[in-house]
Amino acid sequence: MLLLTAFIEVAPSDREAIHAALSDVIASTRAEEGCEDYGCYEAWMNVAGPKMKSARGFLYDVASSTELRPR
Q1: Fewer CB within 10 A of the terminal residue: the chain, N end or C end?
Q2: pTM above 0.70?
Q3: How many domains does the chain have?
């Protein structure tokens, strides 16, 4: 399993346009085969990319996982 966490910074004036693009991107990405969860990243780059001030990310190769639940 791969886990990617990314962080972007945009100008406050561009925040609404980027937020408006997220609903469709999240839904379509979660529908992709093998996707277990998706927060908001790459598919909306057409809107966010030109407005980004900076971006960074981390890619993790996960060998196993343990589900944590409150008792």
Answers
A1: C
A2: no
A3: 1
